[in-house]
Amino acid sequence: MQAVEIYCTKTDKLTGTDYHEVVRKARRVYKDITSKSKRKPYIRSAYFKREKVFLDYFWQHLQEKNWHDRLRRLRFYSCALDLIKNSRSCYESKFNPNNYSEMFYKFKGTTQSKEIFIVQVKENLKRGEKYFLSVFPE
User: Fold this and answer.
1) What is the pLDDT of residues 23-60, one digit of tens each?
2) Across the strands, what pairs with 129?
3) 99-110/116-124 β-pairing
């Protein structure tokens, strides 16, 4: 079996005692990125040869979750962005079984406090666009 390379991020989880505190910190990180672009916010990924990975899908996906799950996922937001920017290895990639023009990539990473998390990126193969979809602890 092939060994999976896990990326160790340079940032730690977002801290806070309740949802509103953590979402404020995550939105601040997001706002810093959106201020660098006039259109859709994005970051460049090392795995995809410095191509853009758009960030707006994550917030739509997050709104479908309950409060507890939102908090759990948002804590890893800054770690996920660092992983997408710098990781050069993919944990798993597969086609969307419902739509073969989409591909899903999973990246595995650890925070500075050694907590393992997974980041999902979706690629639209027709357009060649990539979207940061989700982050969650293992």
Assistant:
1) 999 999 999 999 988 889 999 999 999 999 999 899 99
2) 124
3) antiparallel
Establish if 35 belongs to a structural domain. Answer: no
Give the bridge partners for 119, in sequence order.
107, 135
Domain of residue 79, residue span:
7-30+40-137
The answer to whether the beta carbons of residues 76 and 82 sit under 8 Å apart is no
* Tally of domains in the chain: 1
| Whole-angstrom distance, CA of residue 108 vs CA of residue 24 | 25
Asked, for residue 125, whether it belongs to a domain, the answer is yes
The sign of the torsion formed by the CA atoms of 136, 45, 111, 93 equals positive
Q: What is the pTM of this model?
A: 0.90
Place of tokens 């005692």: 17
Q: Which residue has the tokens 């910190």?
A: 25
Q: What is the pLDDT of residues 56-104, one digit of tens each?
A: 899 999 999 999 999 999 999 999 999 999 998 887 889 988 888 999 9
Q: Six-digit token pair at 116? A: 């393992």
> Is 21 domain-assigned?
yes
